[in-house]
Structures are given as structure tokens and as C-alpha cells.
Write a structure and sequence with these properties.
45 residues, mainly alpha, 62% helix
Length: 45
């Protein structure tokens, strides 16, 4: 008989959607921040 803990691989199955969502949220944040920096630099000129 194989113990239950020996069957676990430590990998999350079916989590690719969460990974893509995290990438989209991160790039949306960086993009928005870049836009605010650009707008602020235009105001200071």
C-alpha cells in the first residue's frame, strides 16, 4: 500500500488561468504607472 503523501507531486494542477491573470494584472499596473509618469513629466515642462 502506498501512503497518501507519496502520491503528491507538489504541483498545482489547472492553475494556468491564475498565472495569466497575474501577468495581465502586473502588466496593467506597469502600463498605468508608465502613463502616469509620462503625464507628470509633460506637466513639469
Amino acid at each position: 500500500m502506498i501512503p497518501v503523501f507519496a502520491q503528491q507531486t507538489g504541483m498545482v494542477m489547472g492553475g494556468l488561468g491564475y498565472v495569466w491573470a497575474a501577468y495581465v494584472a502586473t502588466w496593467a499596473f506597469f502600463g498605468g504607472y508608465a502613463v502616469t509618469l509620462y503625464v507628470r513629466s509633460k506637466e513639469n515642462r
